[in-house]
Amino acid sequence: MPDFKWSCKFCSYVNLPGIDKCSECGLSAYASAEDIELHAIPGAYEKNKTIKKYQDAIVPFIFLPGLVATYIVKGQLEILAVVMLLLIVLLYRNSAFLAHAMKYKWVLVTFCLWFLSLFILMYIRREYVPIWGDGAGYIALLSVLVNAYGFLYLFKSKRGKELYSAYYETANK
Ligand SMILES: [Zn+2]
After folding, report:
1. What does the domain layout of the chain look like in residue ranges?
2. pTM confidence score
3. Average pLDDT, consecutive stretches of 10 residues, N- to C-terminus, the chain (173 residues)
4. What secondary structure, in 3-state letters, does the chain show?
5. For ligand 1, a single-atom ion, which residues have Cβ within 5 Å?
6. Cα 173 to averaged position of ligand 1 atoms, centre (Å)
7. How far is the CA of 41 from the centre of ligand 1 (A)?
């Protein structure tokens, strides 16, 4: 928190020390150039906050492809139980968003490819790679990369952002 008087980069209002959001317009004392730009668009702040909420609710979803692949390859019932539990929670919290997302072919394709890559990696791991060896390390690394890529594509890519944005527009009409 600033311990000095500061003037807002957006509206020039002079704020008292100990306040980290402008009393006049709500912009943070530490706003970046990008923040200021967004702040200037009406409703952008609310929209970003709401979209962040949608994304937080959907985050557990990224564990599903890996868990389902693990269950199919290893057949452990406790993994199936976790999958079921996760599915119930996710469907309960995100049914409207999921219904929206499934209308986009690229979302389905991404999810299928994501799952399939993990499945193939796990299968190779089970059939051909000894548990303690370089091979196992590479497979683990590849799985992490596949997960990171799937996550970034669904959340941070231009398409991903448009997906949330379009959902926000329909949900807040
Ligand atoms: Zn201000």
Report:
1. 1-40, 43-171
2. 0.69
3. 90 92 89 87 80 86 87 90 92 90 92 91 85 80 91 88 90 79
4. CCCCCEECCCCCCEECCCCCECCCCCCECCCCHHHHHHHHCCCHHHHHHHHHHHHHHHHHHHHHHHHHHHHHHHCCHHHHHHHHHHHHHHHHHHHHHHHHHCCCHHHHHHHHHHHHHHHHHHHHHHHHCCCCCHHHHHHHHHHHHHHHHHHHHHHCCHHHHHHHHHHHHHHCC
5. 8, 10-11, 13, 22, 24-25, 27
6. 28
7. 14
